[in-house]
Write a structure and sequence with these properties.
GO terms for molecular function: DNA binding; DNA-binding transcription factor activity. Helices cover 51% and strands 12% of the residues. It is an alpha/beta fold. The radius of gyration is 24 Å and the shape is globular.
Amino acid sequence: MSVRIDITGLRPERVAVVASPLAELGMALHALAEPGHHPGLQGWVTGVTARLDPHLADRMCEADFLWRTTFSDLFLPFAGVPGRTTLPGATIAEDLDLLDKLTDEQFVDAALEFTCAMPYYSHGPSALSDTALRRRALELAASRGPRQVRFAERLLTDPPRTRAWLRQFVEDCEEAFFADTWSRLSHQLAADARHKTDLLRRKGLAEALTAVSPAVTLDEAETRITVDKLGSGHSATGEGGLLLVPTSLGWPHLSVLHRYGWQPVLHYPVGSPELASPPSVEELALRMTALSHPVRMRLCRHLARSAYTTSELAQVHGMTAPEISRHLSVLKKAGLLTTRRRGRYVLHQLDVTVVARLGSDFLEGILR
């Protein structure tokens, strides 16, 4: 499973690395709504929450489906501007001006992404004009509570009013807490953008993408970017560009905007605690499957304590050597064992470092 971006014919000058204050505010709102996704931000979340005006906190709940699951493409409005080459603004106000350039259909469809399950990377009808989609959006919003139903109804019946509400809400968040946060983070993001831009110029797109994340790769023909994620999707730059947008608040999320008709965007975390080479989704699934078998779990109990030969394990577990070998082969293929030779004996041992990382690897994999 992966998200693919076709970049055939993409000119080097159409690749840009630029931070976005509105995108970072979207990630800040997500972290405030789901602090469990971001264990490294607990201190920041606690501090902001303690100082938050109750009225603003109440408004955050009113439309939190825009940022609770992840955050809506509305926080990356530059990608939806016609021409698909627009860069993020330097300020919240400039990004909001770009948000105003989206059509009502673009605004509503992006806002309903998480409650309507509408076509994302293919062309489809708009909830503003399709009665069935409108009904589905309201039904799904109902499962999130009466506030979300009221917001969805207002969104569908009066988009201009909702757009004005969101703009005012963002401006109030900036004044309440985000201006201070952005003043601290913008320097790190600008430095990362300069570094990635320098890599683009000196070593090319493949090196820059590797620096973005080991989960992002470019094929040998340099026509397709693949992002290893627990999900599928596709997009194309076409006549437009490709944006790399760094975030300081985003780990473990590596987001790919691949909405139909929008400029593709890689929204990636900087300064993250992720491993230099985190396991791919396929490797993670292989390891989880390998450990799920009861016999292999019992083998791991011994192999975690010491190194054993196949014959020793067979004797302890009352199984034949070929049976033990098959189970060891599965564990080894999953990268969970180390082996070493001592004379004519081959000793197997559990790589406890890899196993200890599985919890964080699993979390990173499913939230990536």
